[in-house]
Amino acid sequence: MELELTNMILKNREYQRVLSQLREMEADRLFCRHDIPHFLDVARITVILCNDWGVSCDRDIVYSAALLHDIGRVQEQQCGIPHDIAGQAVADIILSDIGCPDDAKKQIIGLIASHRSASPKKSQLEQVFCEADKRSRQCYSCAAEALCNWSGDKKNHDIEV
Ligand SMILES: [Fe+2]
User: Fold this and answer.
1) How is domain 4-147 classified at the architecture level of CATH?
2) Who's near 58: CB < 8 A, 6+ residues apart?
3) How far is the CA of 99 from the centre of ligand 1 (A)?
4) Distance of CA 73 from the midpoint of ligand 1 (Å)
5) Residue 138 contacts by C-beta under 8 Å, 6 or more apart in sequence?
6) Which residues surround ligand 1, an ion (CB under 5 A)?
7) Is 147 helix (H, G, I), strand (E, B) or coil?
8) In angstroms, what is the span from residue 95 Cα to ligand 1's centroid?
9) What's the rounded Cα separation, in Å, for the pair 121 and 128?
10) Model pLDDT for residues 44-100, shown as the tens digit of each residue
């Protein structure tokens, strides 16, 4: 199967536990949610941008990182730890649990660590993944757009990919 690690993460008990905590936490959230549709948007936009810009990527790594990149939001909300930091530790536990090879684990955790705009990037793929996370948000059709704290130049006013 092409997305072997991705589907092992999806079916992992700890992943499902954290995902349901996140779902519960964001049930009444007015702004963009951090859910499976968002994770798949990030993965698919990353693949499209990699194709357009000639950046090589392993889809299983990209989809795995996409599933995991925002799961640290539970700890961010509960303990104030930034989610890109908290998410690395949670991902490490899940990736170890599924027997993810070290090299793949390093790449996935690198994508989680660098997915925010201000985080330093070590590879072109990390830059593309961060861009895909931003582009995934549909500000042009968001009911809460006027209340959102994203600056006007960061918001997506048009459909690009
Ligand atoms: Fe995200």
Assistant:
1) Orthogonal Bundle (1.10)
2) 104, 107
3) 25
4) 10
5) 156
6) 70, 133
7) helix
8) 19
9) 10
10) 999 999 999 999 999 999 999 999 999 999 999 999 999 999 999 999 999 999 999
